[in-house]
Amino acid sequence: MRPATRTLADVVVIAALAAYAIPFFWQLLTSFKPEAELLRIPPLLPSRLTLSHYRVVLEQSLMPRALLNSLGIATLTTTVALVVGLPGAYAVARRPVPGKRWLLLAIVASTAFPQIATVSPLYLLMRGLDLRDTWTGLVLVHASFALPLTVWLLAGFIREIPIEAEEAASVDGAGLVKTFRWVVVPLLAPGLASTALLTFLFSWNEFLFAYTFTVSEASRTIPVALALFPGVFEVPWGDIAAASMLASLPPVLIVVALQRFLVRGLVAGAVKK
Amino acid sequence: MLLLAPTALALGALTVYPGAWVLWLSLQHRIPIFGVARFAGLDNFTFLSVDARFWSAAHTTAVFTVASVALEVVLGVGAALAIHTQRRGRAVALSFLLLAWAMPAVVAAKLFEWLYHPVAGLINVALGRHALNWLGDPAIALAAVTLADVWRTMPFVAILCYARLLAIPADLYEAAQVDGAGRLATLTRITLPLLGRILLLAVLFRTLDALRAFDIMFVLTGGGPANTTETLTVYAYRALFQTLQLGFGSALSVVVFALVMVVAWAYLRLLRAGSVAT
């Protein structure tokens, strides 16, 4: 192809994919539209932009609390899953564990585990332990649910590290913990980052458990708050749009800032199987 | 061994143990608000076998799964091929896809609820004011829900395929060119066969997700109108937490669980057979 044709082709592809993202951009535009113009299209573009919907959401709704809950729960979930999963992943990747084949099979099988299958016993468990409507309850459930994928991803990344580095460290007299801290973890940093992001996204986006185990704003996460967004007499489309944008802010930031890591993590998760 | 202990403990306590518990619950009549709790054997399952709502939900689940996965594969491969032809701007193109993928399903549901708005929805406006009631009309509600789900999940398929395309060595294409293969022949003889395995994986993941899909229909339609978008998972959820039939709902959950496992097992066999063949 001639260079001009090539450039044109590139532009067409980008335009097509930008069009694919229209549902998002339309909601973004809606979140800045004046209330009176919401149900009046055409025109597609508003006469002016307003922050009033964001003001309502941030000042008069329970969204700020939900944002805080989600941020806390997703961060803690990620931390717990990584701390619990990292040693397990190391064992899977490097140690001769008896029954490893079965163990791996169990891990793969549990990534396919449907949430609905455990939601009723977990509900009884949460009620029995008085963990309903607490951060702890959701963090435990989210972390354990994310754990198989975490272990799987991390094990894959650990296998990519040349084993010579660890052998050299142990020849130099470093114990397991030291080797781990000074050799494995630094080399694993990109893999850790991708895994952490995917775990964070999972917890941030998770709906079924969060919806079932929360009763009040004490632990209501953002997807739940959005699903339950109240309308008094009519549906407040502008406010919902603003709330949706707030709910997608961290995912969007993660995607934009760390695209490379994320693709790596996603691909690793699938290909390693 | 000690290293595995935390993982094993966490999975044991919060996945395996509830997994066994749900089986036990599914064999009971348990309706807490009426104080009912007794062993029922396989009653719940025998009831399911003649429950019209169950079969309707199974049908909806099947239609939703097949339609959404098929659409995702076609669109996903197309998007991956398109991005792969790009000289510049790949990162931007990928960002648009990732944007859709990273959304919480609930947000995607809200985006589409607004797009489907009978009066002010962009889709009806684009269609020239046909004023279709996308989420309220039993004839098209499932299609509307499927479309919303495809939007959010197609990028996953596209990204996996794109990564595989990157790994195809350039000299393979050069050799094809030397042999005089046209673009179509290169696509059908080289590119698509090489995508086969990763596509099978993508289809596996997507099928499992579609079989247990919940968020998107629960938020968009709640299973309605007239239960036309009620999948097995939504039915199970409503039985568990709206009508509070803990035993019966658990039996439904067990069915979803079994279904997912059978499909996963079948795919893995297929995948293994494929890797032996190539």
List keywords for this structure.
heterodimer, A: 273 residues, mainly alpha, 13 helices, 0% strand, globular, B: 278 residues, two-stranded antiparallel ribbon, 3% strand
Coarse shape of chain A? globular
Structural class of chain B: mainly alpha
**Over all CA atoms, what is the radius of gyration of chain B?**
23 Å
Taking the alpha carbons of the first and last residues of chain B, their distance comes to: 36 Å
Overall pLDDT of chain B, averaged? 89
**H-E string of chain B:** HEEHHHHHHHHHHH
Q: How many E strands of chain B? A: 2
Q: Please provide the count of β strands of chain A.
A: 0
Fraction of residues in β-strands of chain A: under 5%
- C-alpha Rg of chain A, in Å? 23 Å
Topology pattern of chain A, helix = H, strand = E: HHHHHHHHHHHHH
Q: Count of helices of chain A?
A: 13
Give the low-confidence spans of chain A: none
> Major sheet of chain B: order of its strands?
1-2
Instruction: Name the pair of protein chains with the most residues at their interface, and give those residue counts.
Output: A-B, 89 and 86 residues
Q: Main beta sheet of chain A, described?
A: none
Mean pLDDT of chain A comes to 87
